[in-house]
Amino acid sequence: MTARAVVIGGGIGGLASAVALARGGWDVTVLERATSLEPVGAGIAVAPNAVRALGALGLGDALRELSTLQGEVGMRRPDGRWLVRADTADAGARFGDQTLVLHRAQLVGMLADALPDGALRLGTSAAVVHAGDGGRPAVVRVSDAAGSPGGDVADAAGPAGGDVRDGAGPAGTDAPDAAASGEEVEADLVVAADGIDSPTRTRWWPDAPRPVHGGSTAWRLVAPARTDIVGGETWGRGIVVGIVPLADGRVYSYVSVADAAGVPESFDELRARLADWHAPIPELLASVDPAQTLRHALRCLPAPPATLATGRVALVGDAAHAMLPNVGQGGCQALEDAVVLGARVPASAARRSGGLDVASALQEWSAERRPRVEKVMKLSAQVAVPTRWTSPVLTGARDLGARAAGTWAASLGTRALDGVMGWRSPTPGGA
Ligand SMILES: Cc1cc2nc3c(=O)[nH]c(=O)nc-3n(C[C@H](O)[C@H](O)[C@H](O)COP(=O)(O)OP(=O)(O)OC[C@H]3O[C@@H](n4cnc5c(N)ncnc54)[C@H](O)[C@@H]3O)c2cc1C
Question: Is residue 148 within 8 Å of 373, Cβ to Cβ?
Fold first, then answer.
C-alpha cells in the first residue's frame, strides 16, 4: 500500500517538504489555496546551509544556474562611507559554501518543477480535521478556494500582517479556510506549511505562541538590470537598505524602517526619505513601479511551539518558526525542515505496525529540529535590535563597533553564524 502524505501550503516550506517526501517514497499531494504560485517582486538569499539542503533535494545544479554569488559585500553609512567591506568568498571558505541569491519566483519554480506530475493542486484550501495517531490516519478536509487571489505567495500573511503591494491596497486577503463542507481525505502524514498565520497551528496547537509585530516595516523590490552594483547594506538611524545583484543583472533591494523612525505611509514618502542616501539607492527606488513593490509589517513568532508535531501532523517553515528576516534564514530553515523530514520520516515508517512509526518518527524529527530553529529565531531577533536604533549615540557606537570588528561576519558574531551556516544535511547525496 502506498504511503500518502498531504502537504498544506505551496510556499518554500511546503514545496520543499513535498519534494523531500516524494524522494523518500511518499505519494504526495500539495494543497495550495492561492491560484498561482508566482511570488512578486523579491529576491531571496540562500545561505550555505540551505544551499546544502537544496543539494540534498537534487537541486544543487539548478540552483547554481539560476543564482548569483554575492561577490563583494559590505556595510555602509547613508553618506556612502564604508564601515565594513568583505569578499563573500571568505565567508564561503568558512561555511563550506557561499550564499547564493536568486529571484523568489525562480526558487519556487525550481521546487515546483521537482514535484511528481500532478502533485500540486492550486486554488485548494485544506484544514486538518483529525490529527491521527499511532493507529489511525489523519483526516484533511479539502475544498475549493475559488476566488482566492494568487500573487504574494511566499510571504502571504493574514489580515494582521498588513501585507500590501504599495499603492495597490491589500495584496490579497486570504481565502476562507476549508469550510465546513468539502471532501475529506485520509493521510498517513500531514505537513502543515501554511505560513505564519497557520490555521493548522491555531487549531491544533492552541497554546502555541502567536505572531507578534517585529517593530519595523519592510519594502522589497526588484529593479531593472544595471552593471554598477556593489552589494551590501546601508545602515542609518532606524533604516536599513539592502542591495543585492541578481544573476540576470536585475537588482533586488529591501528597505526596513523601524516604527521608532516613523514608517512612511507610501512608497513616494519612502523615496523622499532616502533621497539624499548614497548612490544608487535613490535611483533604484525611482526605477520601480510602486505597485510592483512589496510592503510588510514584519512579524515573527516569539518562540516555536513546544513540539513541532502532533499525531501525524508536522508543522514546517513559518508555521512553526516564523522569524525576523535579519539573518535571512526563514526560508533556509524551512528547507532544512524539509530535508530532515524526508530523511527521518521515510514512507516505510507508514507501512510498519499500523503506522505507529509515523507519529513517533515525527516526534524524533521535532526533537532534532526544534532546538535548532529556536536558536536561529533568537539570533534573528538579536541581530534586528541595532537595526531599529534611532539615537545618534547608539547608532554611532554601533557603526564604530562594526568598523572595529573589521569583517562583515565578525560584526554579526561569527560563532553564532558558524552554527547556523555550518549545518550539514543528513542526506548529502539525496534523500
Ligand atoms: C522582508 C523579508 C525578507 C526575507 N528574506 C529572506 C531571505 O533572504 N532568505 C530566507 O531564507 N528567508 C527570507 N525571508 C523569510 C521567508 O520569506 C519565509 O521564511 C518563507 O517564505 C516561509 O515559507 P513557508 O513556505 O513556510 O510559508 P509561506 O511562504 O507563508 O507559505 C504558506 C503557504 O500556505 C498557503 N496556505 C495557508 N493556509 C492554507 C490553507 N488552509 N490551505 C491551503 N494553503 C494554505 C498560503 O497561501 C501560502 O502559499 C524573508 C522574509 C521577509 C518578510
Answer: no
Q: What is the total residue count of the chain?
A: 431
* Cβ burial 294-326 (10 Å sphere, 16+ → b, else e): bbbbbbbbeebbebbbbbbbbbbbbbbbbbbbb
Query: Cβ(132) to ligand 1 under 6 A?
Result: no
Q: Residue 332 — very low, low, confident or very high, per pLDDT cuts 50/70/90?
A: very high
User: pLDDT tens-digit profile of 383-393?
Assistant: 999 999 999 99
Distances (CA, A) of 332 to 167, 174, 317: 30, 24, 9
Q: Where are the beta strands (DSSP E) in 269-335?
A: 294-300, 309-310, 313-315
Q: Does residue 253 contact residue 246 with C-beta atoms inside 8 Å? A: no
pLDDT score for 171: 32
Q: Is 39 in the pocket of ligand 1 (CB under 6 A)?
A: no
CB-based contact 42:18 (threshold 8 Å): no
CB of 177 sitting under 6 A from ligand 1 = yes
Q: Which atom of ligand 1 is nearest to the CA of 194?
A: 34
| Residue to probe by mutation, ligand 1, list 318, 333, 383, most atoms within 8 Å of CB | 318
Of the candidates 30, 19, 26, the residue with the CA atom closest to the CA atom of residue 3: 26
d(CA 23, CA 38): 24
C-alpha span between 390 and 238 (Å, rounded): 5
pTM of structure: 0.91
The reported pLDDT for the residue numbered 39 is 67
* C-alpha span between 102 and 59 (Å, rounded): 14
> Nearest to residue 179, comparing CAs of 207, 146, 216?
146
b/e per residue, 95-104, with b = 16+ CB within 10 A? bebbbbbbbb
